[in-house]
Records
---
Amino acid sequence: MKPHPSSNPDDTLTRVAELLRRAHHVVVLTGAGISAESGVPTFRDAQTGLWARYSPEELATPQAFARRPHLVWAWYQWRRTLIRQATPNPGHLALVEIERRVPHFTLITQNVDGLHRQAGSRHVVELHGNIMRTICSREGTVVERWSQPEGEEPPACPRCGAYLRPDVVWFGETLPPDALQAAIEATATADLFFSVGTSAVVQPAASLPVEAVRHGATLVEVNLEPTPVTPFAHYVLTGPAGTVLPALVRAAWPAPAP
Ligand code: OAD
C-alpha cells in the first residue's frame, strides 16, 4: 500500500486521528527532535545540534573515552546539566495521553534524557541507554555512588578502580539486547507506528519504521523536514512535535463541550 498524501494538513490530521482512535497497538519511535522544545540540543540540526560543535568520533566512541577520558566525561557532565534543567514539553505529554487512551502502547526512544518517563510515559524502551545512569567501564555494572576525584579525571569504580562512564550506547557499540528485542517485537505487532523527531539515519533504530510497514502497520511521520523514512510513510505531519502531537490528541479525542 502506498502513501495517500493529502495536500491539506487538516485532512491528514483528521485521518490520522481516526486511525489513532481505532488502533490496537500504537508504537512510537522518538528521536532528539521531541526533546528539542525542552531545550535539549538535537544531534544533527546544523545550527543548534551538538554534533555541529563537536565531532562524534571525538566524544561518543569507546576509543575516544580510552584516549581522552576526562574530555568525554566532562562533555557528558555538561549534557547532564542541560538535561537536569529540562522539563517535558507538550509533545512528551501528548504521548502520555495517547498511552492512556489506546489498548496497547509502546514508546521506543533513542533519547537518553529520560524525559518520556519524567512526563509519565510508562511503557518506554530506551534503545540508547540513559545518560543519568553511570556504569563501570570495565564491568558494565551500574554504580550509584562514587567519590569525585580532584582534577579532571573521571571518577573510578569503587569496586574495581576502572573509570566510570555514562550508561549510553556509543558509536560502534551494540544496543542493550533486551531493549532491542522489545523494540523489534513491538514493531512487528504495531498496527499504527509513529516516527517522531528522528533523522532516521542511525541503525538499527532507523529501520524500525520500515519494518513496521513490512509487517502491515500504517506509518505516520512527525518531523520538521523530510527524512529517509518519509518515502515509506503513509501520512506525514510536518511541524514541531510539541504542536502536532497535542493537536492530534485533540482531534482524536475532542474534549466534551462544557
Ligand atoms: P537527530 O539530531 O539526528 O535528528 C533530529 C530530528 O528531529 C531531525 O530530523 C529534525 O528535523 C527533527 N526535529 C528537530 N526539532 C523538532 C521538533 N521540534 N519536532 C519534530 N521534529 C524535530 O537525532 P536522532 O534522530 O535522535 O545516538 O539521532 C539518532 C541518534 O544519533 C541518537 O540517539 C544518537 C545520535 O548519534 C547515539 O548516541 C547512539
Note: Residues 69-85 form the longest helix (17 residues).
---
Amino acid sequence: MGLMMQQPLLISSLLRHAERHHGEQLVVSRRVEGDIHRYTYRDMASRSRRMAKALGSLGMEPGVRVGTLAWNGYRHLELYYAVSGSGAVLHTLNPRLHPDQLVWIAENAQDKVLCFDLNFLPLIEAVAPRLPGIDAFVLMTDRAHMPAQTSIPNLLCYEDLMAAQDDVFEWPEFDECMASSLCYTSGTTGNPKGVLYSHRSTLLHTYASALPDALNLSARDTILPVVPMFHVNAWGLPYSACMVGAKLVLPGPALDGASLYALMEAEGVTLSAGVPTVWQGLLAHTQGKGLRFSSMNRTIIGGSACPPAMMEAFEDQYGVQVLHVWGMTELSPLGTVGVLKTEQLASTRDQQRAVRSKQGRALFGIDMKIIDAQGAELPWDGEASGDLLVRGPWVLSSYVNDEGDSPLVKSEGQDWFPTGDVATIDPAGFMNITDRSKDVIKSGGEWIGSIDLENIAMAHPDVAMAACIAARHPKWDERPLLVVVRKPGAELSREQLLGFYEGKIAKWWTPDDVVFIDALPMGATGKILKHQLRERFGDFLMQPAERPTVG
Ligand code: ADP
C-alpha cells in the first residue's frame, strides 16, 4: 500500500477550498426578483452551512433527494453545496418540461423536499396536489416576496430558514462513492432517465474539465454559465469555479441576447458557456448593433453541434475563441473538447478551424471507440463512421430505477456505454459526430449525416435555423429534407438554398427539398426536436403532387 493520506473526494471540499483560498472572490447573480446580487465565496460558504443545518432540521438525511426548480443564481448554488455536502442528493429539475413530465420525474426520483424560484410559484401551485411525496416546499426568496396567499400547504421561506440558523457546522465525511446529485436526461430520444452522480465522479470530472486542453479555467477567469444549473450541473461549472477560485456570474432567468450582453460587459466576463441556440440570440443582438465584447475571450459551445458559421462569427468578428465540447447527461457531461495539438499548429487557419469544429479529443478519464453493426472496432481514419462507445469514472453505469436492465454493452470483455451518437475519429484522436443514430438518413443503403447538411444551411446568410431530417422516399427509402426558418425579412427560395450546396458536398447528399416554417420545435434543453419534425414532414417526399403547402 502507498503511504499517502486517504481523503474521500467530496463536493464539500470544493467549497471549503473556495472559502479558505479565494474567500474574497465574487459570485454575482441576476436575481429572479429583478436586481443584481453580489457576495463572496466566504459569504456563500457561510450561507451554505446555514442552509445545510436548516434542511437538516427539516429532516434531510443522507441519501434523501432534494429537488430544485431554479435558474442560475446564488441560492441555487448554496443548495448545490448544502444538499450534496450533507450527504443528501440534489435533484435539479428542468422547469421547461411539461408539468406532467415534472410530476413524473419528481415522483420517480422520490424527492422529499422541493426548493423553487419565485417565478415558478404558479407552476408549483398547479402541481403540488399531485406531489404527495414532497414533505416540504421551500420558496427560494425572502419574507418580503412571500405570497400573501397560496394553495401550497405549509410553504416555507428560504431566507427565514436561513435566518434561523448560525453557520457553525462541520461538513460530514463519508464514502466518496455516495450519490451527490441527480439529473434526468432531456428525453429528446425517449423517456427521461435518471443519472445519479457520485462525489467521486463529480470531483474527478471537475479536475479533468478545468485542465488547459479542456475548459482551461483559472482564478483569473470570470465565468458566466448560461447553460442552466438544472442541465447536467451547468456542465460542472459551479464545482470547477470553486476548484480554481474563478469569479462566477449567474444570469438568472434573463437569457436573451441583450441581458446576457449587458451582464458580460458589466461584470468583465472572460468565459461563457451555453448551447448554440442561446449564442444565436446573443449574436443577433450584438451584430444588429455593432457591439463588441470588451472582456470575453472564450466561449464554450456544446449540447448540439456548433455550426462552423457560429465559430467563424465569434472568432473573426469578435475575437472570441470558441471551445467546441461534446458530452451527455450520462457523462457528467464532458467527454471531448476540440482543442488543437502541436502538430496542427502548422496548418492553415481553415484547416485548423475544420479540426476545431469537430467535437474533439477525449479528456483523460474518458476512453472512446467506434464500432460497426457487428460490434467490430472501426479504424481512426477520420472516414469510417460507427456507433460511439465511451467508458470512464464519470460515465454512468446504470439509470435510476432501472429494473436490472443494464444500459452498458460488452466489447472485448469490457463494459462500454453506447452513446447513441454516430461518429468518426481521425488519426489525431479528434472525434466528429455525424449524427445521432436515430437521426441518420439512410439513403439507398448509404448513410447521410444530417449535421453536415445543417451546418451548410446555417452558413447561408438568410438562414436563422435549419434542421435536416430523414424523409421517407419511394425509391431510396429515405432522403434528406431540410426544414428551415428564414431570418426576419429574408426572401430565400428553395432553389437558392439548394444551389448553395453545390461544390460543398457530394451531389447525392444534397437535400431533396426545403420546407420553410416559422419556428422549429425546441426541447427543454435548447435542442431541436427532430422526431416532431419527422412526424410532421416524414411523408413530405412521398407524394410530390399533393405536398402540403407550408407557410
Ligand atoms: P438528451 O440525450 O436527452 O438530449 P443530453 O443533453 O445529455 O440529453 O444530450 C446529449 C446528446 O447531445 C449527445 O449524445 C449528442 O447527440 C448531443 N450533443 C451534445 N454535444 C454535442 C456537440 N458538440 N455536437 C453534436 N452533438 C452534441
Note: The domain at 12-323 is CATH 3.40.50.12780 (Rossmann fold).
